[in-house]
Sequence to fold (172 residues):
Amino acid sequence: MVHANPGAGGAWREWKAWYYDTVDEAGLTNEVFAPGTLHIDYTSILGGQPFDIDASAWTTQLIGMLRRLDGKQHLYTAVLAELPQPGAGQARPETCKAYSQGGASMVVQAVPGGHIMQNGAQATFEMVRVPELEAKGLNPWRIRGQTVNLAWQNGNKAVVDSIKTDRTGEEN
Fold:
């Protein structure tokens, strides 16, 4: 698959939102998250504590939450990537940080008190270069960690509460 915006500030962002909203586990696993352990911090939205989790376990848990939504739309925009300028004497980075503004609209029809929750947030992504992908000519940048800081929310918080899972993937 060819992506329009390769690099640390590029395609993974669009695909992350697309795969969230199309509930595409393979896409999240193969094109968004780095293999191995991820650091996840959604505490400002979901509560709880930040945690480390295997990428495949996180994707499975995330897909479970997304499937409980009747409708969803995630957007990421204005990604800023901290990467050095290439040049003589400059080491090629294997990791970097990327920052983005974003938001989500989430719908659960059966929740009492209103069926929609919307929010806006700032996200910080820890990115890692995956050499095996680069050797194949693919965009090598994948998310190794993400922190989402809620900026605002509007609607029924029970919508988000209704989809939460604990770290084992079981419903609360």
